[in-house]
Amino acid sequence: MGQPAEEKILKIPVSVFESAETKEELEDWLLANDPVFVKEMERIKKEESGKGIPLEEAAKKWLTES
Q1: Nearest to 27 by CA among 37, 54, 53, 60
Q2: pTM score above 0.70
Q3: In angstroms, rounded to a whole number, what is the distance separating the alpha carbons of residues 7 and 4?
Q4: Which has the closest alpha carbon to 33: 11, 8, 2?
């Protein structure tokens, strides 16, 4: 078998956790505060300016099943 996944601890401010009314709102906050995700979105925006990227392609890369 492969190596176990690296355990990561993420601290979410209580105010964010309490104010999120849905899982989607919490997910939005998590993505907006993920430096890897933000950097990738900035790269895509710069490289693909005017070209766009299919939603399905972005979803495959960034979304996971709950």
Answers
A1: 37
A2: no
A3: 9
A4: 11
CB-facing half-sphere around the CA of 62: CA atoms within 13 A = 19
In the chain, what are the domain boundaries?
A: 14-62
Length of the chain: 66
pLDDT tens-digit series, residues 27-55: 999 999 999 999 998 988 888 776 767 88
Per-residue CA distances from 41 to 11, 13, 21, 33, 36 (Å)? 22, 24, 25, 12, 9
Q: Which two tokens stand for residue 58?
A: 């972005």
